[in-house]
């Protein structure tokens, strides 16, 4: 779900949290999501422009023996009879009429010394292959992960990713820079994706990470990032990423690679507010494949990116080729104002090589967020203003018109 923001450095927590299991634990959540928009001549709260769904997730983790643990979780989706009455579409998985469920995690883990291995179906969080949290259900992966922390202040990560689920049907997919549902199926082990990463914070305020990916039949990619967090509240970061396409993804005369760069600076006054501003620039590759989800996007899912400038709701714009983007984020905690407040602004301006069809597909997005926790119940209400030149076209001029979106999220954690 969107209100959960995943850290780029979460991979460093795998050894300390995902495997720190005390006997047997059961946990999960129940969600009810609703969204409505007034685009395409549809009024707000009209079922034709509305999406709604309920989900429940239950997971169990347990120690099998000393140093060996296992986990399994199941997610169930239901329309609750909303379809055709209050909404005409759902967030994930179902066909809008029937309910569905699937096992999204089933893994086995073991630790010897400072080395931990994990194999099975699981969530991942690396810069270019990660489980997205914006939707009512989370994409997971069939993978094998190895983590070592023998070097002081350093975490080494190696992973093989053999498949990912798109929606509620778990299928083997080629990891690529496009939606996995549209990718080419595979079953051979050697057609998976390999990843290697190193994360270091020898100097406590600074965390540096570097990652390399090789999707055997599709692409190579890298990601380098450094984040600084000073005690005085100042934060700063830089990111650099690049992707080189292989085989049939490179048309005759087209560039086979593209890059992106991003920087961020911010300030946090504890228990009062946070404020940050970010900038990113992508390369000018003329390959249309980089206009689908773009360089720096999640290689396995919707095109969401961990670039500092990523929009709150409209993914895939800041990572298009030849795109300049800025993001300004301001938040206040619930403890200060009774209701947690957030303001997120993203502007993506596309150059001549920036889109597959129209080189002027710019985006401006403003999101206002209000959150409140009532014990185990988390509630969020959001307003999103979207002005994108390739959305909500005027019936006469064909130019994109701004439109409004209202969303509500309820999550009960247990």
Here the CATH topology equals: Porin
CATH architecture: Beta Barrel
From the spread of the alpha carbons, the general shape counts as globular
Instruction: Domain count, please report it.
Output: 1
**The CATH H-level homologous superfamily:** Porin
User: Given the structure, what is the number of helices?
Assistant: 2
Task: Write a structural description.
The chain has 414 residues and is an all-beta fold. It has one domain (10-413): Porin (Beta Barrel), CATH 2.40.160. The chain has helices at residues 14-18, 334-337; strands at 24-37, 50-65, 68-78, 100-112, 115-122, 141-148, 154-166, 169-171, 193-200, 206-215, 219-229, 234-245, 257-269, 273-282, 323-332, 340-350, 363-374, 377-388, 403-413. The protein has an 18-stranded antiparallel barrel. The longest helix is centred in the N-terminal third of the chain and has 5 residues, at 14-18. The chain starts with 13 loop residues before the first helix and ends with a strand. The relative contact order is 0.12. Residues 1-21 and 167-190 have low confidence and may be disordered.
